[in-house]
Amino acid sequence: MSAGDRLLPRLLAGLDPGGEPMTLAEHVRTHGELPMMAGQVLIEEVAHAGLRGRGGGDFPTARKMAAVAACGVKRRSRGGPSAVIVNGSETEPASGKDRLLLSKLPHLVLDGAVLAAGAIGAPEVIVMVGGNERGALRALEGAVVDRAQDPVGVQLVGGPQGYVSGEESAVVHYLNAGVALPTFVPPRPYERGYRGRPTLIQNPETLAQVALIARFGAHWFRELGTTADPGSALVTISGAVRAPGVYELAFGTPISDLLAAAGGTSEPLQALLVGGYFGTWVAASRAVGLRLARDDLRTVGCSLGSGALIALGQSACGLHESARVIDYLAAESAGQCGPCLHGLRAVADSVAALAEGVASRGEEARVLRWVGDIEGRGACHHPNGAVRFVASTLSVFADDVERHRDGGCAARSAGLPLGRDRPAAVVSAGRL
Amino acid sequence: MSARLRVNPIACKAHGLCAELLPELIRLDDWGFPIIEDEPIPPELLDLARRAVEVCPTLALLLEDDRED
Predict the structure, then answer these.
(1) Are residues A285 and A389 in the same domain?
(2) In a domain, A4, yes or no
């Protein structure tokens, strides 16, 4: 238990995980009225808070808002407004936090979206959610009806759910042309996005944090977390823990505390996947001593990404699980860029061969060469995340590669969530 | 001001002409797609770089000025 414990929960305050979405009245009782503030004041407060995007990009939120606002000023002289998109696609199979926010605490996210729209001078907010996420869509529909007083219009869109369809340029492409595929950038959405307008695209958790910063200020925000990583974050933990789910914690919290909060491990761990399928495997012996902060995670070459962690128990085979994941990521390539389409398939087939113990002698070296060749060569970051995952697989499970060469692997499947078989709902949500 | 080559990976269809013309800066990966040195083009190769851009059948190869920012 950390000292910041009594300061939590923030985002998840008043949450009833199994119950109905929080109503507007309950939301105002929990957090207070939504303050209306001048755009520049809000952007400065968010800058002082040090908030970074929680969709995985880690980009300073205030800088993004200021960039869109600046493009919007130029653009308005030519008569066009800017736009805000809430990117609730959450196509990462190991993450459930955005679904939780949108389906249970929609007003917190909408507060942030409305504030952001005011700050950049956007007359409209578009909330993009996976089309199958009925709980989130239903909660948002109800919330929008209750918010007729909002100064901006809110439009809900149920979008496609492929892994890359949540990528920023793919979201804009889908809204503009009905095609959920990434585009070649620049122009980036902040310059030319929805209907050609300067567009602010933010993750739901980021906007929920904005809603709290507007109410309580940057100083309050920094009472939790570290100097470099202030505030709280939502983390989705699954795998070999007794109470998988979404947890709100302060940045800087030790991973061991997170595991304890998630009911403890259900068996001894061999590794943790940090950052979801775009993330990195870390051997359990190293992972438990780490804190969830960029400084610490960088020492093992990973980042928290959108906050998804998977605990892999010792009874599972890391190589087989990783082979399934990279096979999934290869299949989820948008198929537009050659190095991603052909390269990830080749890498996935090789990792499968290593896992099945049928690889030829040079297989590992070949995979590593491909990893180097593929990185940075797609229009979006899909191939980069995929090859990073593979590089960490070969490093953390190097002994397994040797063992599989001799044909030996009796481990059972850990059943990591993949695409369509991802869990339908987050079963529990708590706090540290 | 210096310039560098960049490929639009969505437009590129692996014709490979660029690597034929400019092996000093462009090699092909195992699937025939160009891997471009991410560094300013030496002055003596600038003409070849312009030709490579011109002959790309899908207009996927771009010559971009290095931006200050």
Answers:
(1) no
(2) no
In chain B, % helix, strand, coil (3-state, to 5) comes to 25, 25, 50
Bridge partners (DSSP) of residue A232 are: A250
Which ipTM was obtained for this model? 0.94
**What ranges make up the beta strands (E) of A33-73?**
none
A341: closest chain B residue by CA: B31
Task: Output the domain CATH number for residue A273.
Answer: 3.10.20.600
Distance CA A272, CA A274 (A): 6
| Separation of alpha carbons A75 and A62, rounded Å | 20
Map residue A360 onto helix, strand or coil: coil
Listed residue (A319, A327, A324) closest to A347, CA to CA: A327
pLDDT one-digit tens code per residue, A257-312:
999 999 999 999 999 999 988 899 999 999 989 999 999 999 988 899 889 999 99
A113-138 tens-digit pLDDT: 999 999 999 999 999 999 889 999 99
- Total domain count, chain A: 3
B20 — contact with chain A (CB < 8 Å)? no
Instruction: Show residues of chain B in contact with A337, CB under 8 Å.
Output: 9-10, 12
B61-65 and B3-7 strand pairing: antiparallel
B46 touches A at CB < 8 Å: no
Structural contact between residues A205 and A101, judged by C-beta atoms closer than 8 angstroms: yes
Which chain B residue lies closest to A378 (C-alpha atoms)? B9
Taking residue A30's Cβ as centre, other Cβ atoms within 10 Å add up to 14
- Interface touch A338/B12, C-beta < 8 Å: yes
Integer Cα distance of A112 and A138 in angstroms: 19
pLDDT, tens digit, 9 for 90 and up, residues B26-57: 999 999 999 998 899 999 999 999 999 999 99
- For chain B, state the CA radius of gyration: 11
Q: Chain B residue with minimal CA distance to A342?
A: B31
- Indicate yes or no: pTM above 0.80: yes
Mutation for testing the A interface, residue in B7, B13, B30, B67 having most A CBs under 10 Å:
B30
| Contact call for B30 and A337, based on CB within 8 A | no
Whether residues A64 and A172 fall in one domain: yes
- Measured distance CA(A374)–CA(A371) in Å, rounded: 5
Domains and CATH numbers, chain B: 3-65 (3.30.70.20)
CATH number, position A95: 3.40.50.11540
Residues in contact with A298: Cβ distance below 8 Å, sequence separation at least 6, in sequence order:
none
Question: Coil, helix or strand for A88?
Answer: strand
Q: What letter does residue A17 receive in the DSSP assignment?
A: T
